[in-house]
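It would be a great kindness if you could assist me with a short task in structural biology. The full record is reproduced below for your convenience:
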Amino acid sequence: MTHTPVLGIIGGGIRGSLFARSIQENTAAKLGALCDPSPLARANATAAFGVPAFATVDEMIAAVPGLTAAVIATPDFAHRDAAVLCASNGLDLMVEKPLATNTTDARAIVDAAKNAGTRIMVGFENRWNPRFNIVHSLLHEADHGQIVNQIGNLNDTLFVPTMMLSWAAKSSPAWFLMPHSLDLAIWLGGALPVEVHAVGVKKMLPAMGIDTWDAITATFTMSDGSYVVLNSSWVLPTSAPAVYDFRYEIQTTRGAFHIDGANHGVTHYSSDRLTWEQWGVLERGGRISGVPVDMVNDFVELLLGTKSDLPDAADGLLVTQAIEAVHESLEKNRAVTIAS
């Protein structure tokens, strides 16, 4: 008999709340609790979801002994302690990308899960995006030749590091954005990054008191001899038609793909600006659907034993190692070998 998974959410922000609602609307799972250090976030969670909310992970695990899994939706740099504690208490994990913002933390999470015999799924959301799923199928099911290169532009407007994230100075466009596009490149191409040379600019955000990179470009040499160029910035003007810009190109020996990930096909002309309407999450009839909801639902399927082909601990560790190498390359101004 398969038992209903009971999940706890670590982090009550935008993503944590989205995941909590997704789980609550999944009839095969149960939302057990939420954890956040903010009293306001805890009050909002209890009011919205009718579940207990706790200030610490220790309190949540002790008070809700029936938990079987946890979703780690804390800021990027704060994944380690929550993930290690949950894994050490026998909970399976879904961890938002990146798995961690340094290899030491990532290995600690992986080792804790391995020692406890628990599973990890990393939230590389583009693997659920229909656009990229179509391209993945075409690359692997049709004769499109060998990949020559992949070029990804994933950028945010200034709104993200200045208004949306209070912790932008503890991150960078490489940590916040590039894990999405790098995992995508690995998944689409089936090759691993072995070396990276990165360049970047620090001007606008440091001048605003946020000590981090404005823009980073990283060129990865892949294990099959192809290369991947990833551009990520978060200083686009807020007048841009969407809060993010995502354009992706793949060239093969027999063809090419161009994917626009930010323009969903509806352009809204208001009296003062042009906007690309977004529906990554769509509410209809009191329920939500969309790419991140599909991702959470597949995590539930993993817990039930009916899904297995999902981004795992090894995928998360590799991307962390590669993005750490991007920052090493930035500091040393030379190509860096990516640890294996």
